[in-house]
Amino acid sequence: MSIEKAGYIFEIKLDTGVNVNRCYQCGKCSAGCAINENMDYPPSVVMRMLQTNNVENYNRILRSESIWMCVSCQNCLTRCPMQIDIPRLMDSLREKALKKNIVNKKSGKIISFHRAFLDSIKYTGRLYEIGLIVGYKLRTFNLLQDLTVAPGMFLKGKLPLIPEIIKDKKRLVSVFSKAKQNSRK
């Protein structure tokens, strides 16, 4: 079913289980958000824009920095009287923005980190710090920044050379495969 026929609210509910229409705009999510002041649209505004079921508003949100700035701390979810899972919604919006290739240019470094983080998890099943750092640095072409920090971290045992890989790698591959299939729908 296309967004134009049923509206993206239906698609969001289907993908995430989040019903944006349950939000009654109390503003507690925005009041509790630590990065609210740095967002172009705070969480309560994102919710209201989604409630309009207007494709223009939807695309504005996908192009916004807000969806990339959300760190999924779940402060908004904890404070929400309706228990609306805004972090889950933001994650879904990030994936939709990537899929449609309509991301905010200012969010480039955040997106690079997002991809490097997911790649690290995908290949080892855990966060492998060196893999994350290398992936991020290669994506941002910022190879020499923080180079002086690495030796100290190695000496303190904060950066293991060999990644710790989970035992059930097949299950991990299955999870990422299912996620990829679901994102194609």
TrEMBL record:
InterPro entries: 4Fe4S_Fe-S-bd, 4Fe4S_Fe_S_CS, HdrC_iron-sulfur_subunit, Helical_ferredxn. The keyword Oxidoreductase applies. Residues 14-44 form the 4Fe-4S ferredoxin-type domain. It comes from termite gut metagenome. PROSITE patterns: 4FE4S_FER_1, 4FE4S_FER_2. This is Heterodisulfide reductase subunit C. SUPFAM superfamilies: alpha-helical ferredoxin (SSF46548). Keywords: 4Fe-4S, Iron, Iron-sulfur, Metal-binding, Oxidoreductase. One of its GO terms (cellular component) is plasma membrane. One of its GO terms (molecular function) is 4 iron, 4 sulfur cluster binding. It holds the Pfam family Fer4_8. Its EC number is 1.8.98.1.
